[in-house]
Amino acid sequence: MTTDVTIIGAGLGGLTLARVLHVHGIPSTVYEAEASPAARSQGGMLDIHDYNGQLALAAADLMDEFRGLILEGRQAMRVLGPDGTVLFDKADDGTGGRPEVQRGDLRQILLDSLPSGTVQWGRKVTGARALGEGRHEVTFADGGTVVTSLLVGADGAWSRVRPLLSTVTPEYTGKSVVETYLFDAGTRHPAAAKAVGGGSLIAPTPGREIFAHREKGDTLHAYMVLSEPQDWFAAIDFADAAAATAQIAQEFDGWAPELTALITESDVAPVLRPLYALPTGHRWDRVPGVTLLGDAAHLSAPNGEGANLAMLDGAELGKALAAHPDDIEAALTAYEQAMFPRSAEAAVFEGGEGPGTDSGNHAFHDLIAAVTRHEQSR
């Protein structure tokens, strides 16, 4: 079986590439390990930036659909001290340039924009090998294979395509996230709801941070960030929800009750999400017929840009292929020469300019994205 463009991974980057190719009349097939679009929660909120993510959506001719997803008021941000003191409180006046959407809704408009059959679900990749002359064979867990003259790894942190280009693998960043949800917050968790406000909350201290966001349906989605080695987390039995909750809450002993409520009042069992990264400036020599985008190419610690960069990668690769329809190598060279410095520059600004700044705000959202993205290709 041969296809024009083979994309591994139906995340935001891979789907943006497929959509931009479709806009330019170039067929592609996306292979996704998940069984269906609804197989797994797609994570929480994303802020889509006017200087990268929105440019990608414009190239995909989906700006009208995107505007229909925007949740008003969610660009508001509060920074609290561990004692609950409000250190910063910024309202959403609609001029922030990073409107908020639910990640799953954004993925859905991309899926809906593609011809039926573009995404092949339940096709988990186990490996890929070069056949020569720019052609590659991809092997799936079901025993099937596909041969392609252009292979794009959009398959996230643990990419099965990356080994064709690089021997580098992600390393633990020294931080992990413990994720919780509080439902019907206004009535069932009023103190926590008041602390979070209408948008996002950051409560930072060295080694211990709490982030939270108000999602659709009066849901609070919270993330406790702890700087500890993986062995430290391995000693916590996350299969015992009550015990794990108590141990994580103990790490925030003395914090204001409206903040620790985001741990102790969770309506779901706490979930551990280790954070990984590739080396800053990760790049590879040009290999005919294959490239990477998004986390497969430049996985980083949360830096405010991951999901947006993945979408821009997809759009820019799609445009490069459309501009060089008869010369795949010229297209891939042009794409990579722009992508490498773009992603390296974004990684330099990990952590932003500190809480209370716009950079701190979108770094929060990329933490949320990272929680989802790091797990996708396990």
From TrEMBL:
It is an enzyme of class 1 (oxidoreductase). InterPro entries: FAD-bd, FAD/NAD-bd_sf, TetX_monooxygenase. It catalyses: a tetracycline + NADPH + O2 + H(+) = an 11a-hydroxytetracycline + NADP(+) + H2O. FAD binds at D47, R103, D295. Keywords: Cytoplasm, FAD, Flavoprotein, Monooxygenase, NADP, Nucleotide-binding, Oxidoreductase. Belongs to the aromatic-ring hydroxylase family. TetX subfamily. Consists of an N-terminal FAD-binding domain with a Rossman fold and a C-terminal substrate-binding domain. One of its GO terms (molecular function) is monooxygenase activity. It comes from Streptosporangium nondiastaticum. Its EC number is 1.14.13.-. This is Flavin-dependent monooxygenase. Residues 3-46, 119-338 form the FAD-binding domain. GO terms for cellular component: cytoplasm. NADPH binds at R40.
